[in-house]
Design goal:
The protein is of the alpha/beta class and 289 residues long. Helix content is 41%, strand content 15%. It is built from ten helices and eight strands. Strands 7-6-5-4-3-2-1-8 form an eight-stranded mixed sheet. Helix 1 packs parallel to helix 2. The longest helix has 26 residues. The termini are far apart. 46% of the residues are buried. Bound molecules: adenosine monophosphate (AMP), zinc ion (ZN) and fe (iii) ion (2 copies). One fe (iii) ion binds next to loops.
Length: 289
């Protein structure tokens, strides 16, 4: 009895609509899931509706892009209040900054390859959080490369001359924002070396101090040695340990439910969400009229 707590739809850089994604999840034997599109909660309502239709439990989620210079960190937020103005302001900015950055990458590419910004937009759903995967899809569509993964190891890799970074929030600040919005922050694929530099113990400890609740240890991008290292850290600070696929549909080799999280752990996450929301709705000062 388990959940897949990290999946993407076309509202960011997955390749399936929320409806298609939930239908596939229902066929996997999972009892629940989270939709964690990058920097958006646009799919929550649809995910909840389709989850109910399939008799699945839905835990609302989002993946926040964070960075410290060249170090990229992804933070999962579960159950935060969707109307939190600070977090909303932040993700609006993040999506805009991602878009501007993608335009600059396309500008550079267009000096050598026949690719336009319109070609990239044609690969993304309206309002979707734009990322390198959409540029990759446009390159595939134009027969410049064969697969998304080829783009990530070549033209769109961080070492590529076409690569442009984007401004992202400091991971400690992101943890603070998620907490203030009543969410449960869990660090995504903490030791994904395949993506470049990874967070140090010191940085993870700073995030824990700011309220980080857990680590996504069971993820294909964390190797065995790193998993053991992370488990020790989790034990030391009594952190929640999750496992997820980080499914992007056809866009990435990750398969749905290849790693999962037991129901008991999800209950612990939900309990923290409940406590956070109670705190947020308790009046700080009682007014006397
Ligand atoms: P960006 O956020 O624009 O820098 O692009 C990186 C994102 O692309 C990550 O969140 C990855 O999950 C996603 N991605 C999707 N498909 C792939 C792929 N085939 N290889 C690597 N990353 C991918
Ligand atoms: Zn992604
Ligand atoms: Fe990620
Ligand atoms: Fe992800």
């Amino acid at each position: 009895m388990s959940y897949d707590l990290h999946t993407h739809s076309v509202l960011s850089d997955g390749t399936q609509s929320v409806e298609e994604l939930v239908a596939e999840i229902a066929g996997c034997g999972l009892i629940g899931f989270s939709l964690t599109d990058h920097d958006t909660t646009a799919g929550w309502r649809s995910a909840q509706k389709h989850a109910e239709q399939w008799g699945l439990d839905f835990l609302p989620g989002m993946e926040i892009s964070c960075a410290i210079g060249p170090l990229s960190v992804h933070l999962l937020s579960y159950g935060h209040q969707q109307n939190d103005s600070v977090l909303n302001e932040h993700i609006t900015q993040a999506r805009t900054s991602r878009r501007t950055r993608a335009q600059r990458i396309v500008q550079k590419l267009s000096e050598t390859y026949p690719i336009t910004w319109e070609d990239v937009l044609a690969q993304a759903s309206p309002g979707a959080t734009i990322g390198r995967p959409h540029i990759a899809d446009a390159l595939v569509n134009a027969n410049i490369i064969r697969t998304r993964s080829e783009a990530f190891s070549g033209l769109l890799a961080e070492r590529s001359a076409y690569y442009v970074p984007y401004r992202a929030v400091h991971p400690v600040e992101a943890v603070t924002m998620v907490k203030a919005a009543g969410g449960v922050p869990i660090m995504a694929h903490p030791r994904a070396r395949i993506r470049g530099q990874v967070a140090s113990a010191e940085l993870i400890e700073q995030m824990i101090e700011a309220g980080l609740n857990g680590l996504e240890i069971y993820h294909r991008d964390n190797n065995e040695e790193d998993r053991n290292w992370l488990k020790k850290l989790a034990q030391k600070y009594d952190l929640i340990i999750t496992g997820s696929s980080d499914y992007h549909g056809a866009g990435k080799p990750n398969r749905l439910a290849e790693n999962t999280t037991p129901t008991q752990t999800v209950e612990r996450i939900k309990e923290i969400i409940r406590q956070n929301h109670q705190k947020n709705t308790t009046p700080q000062h009682t007014q006397t009229i």
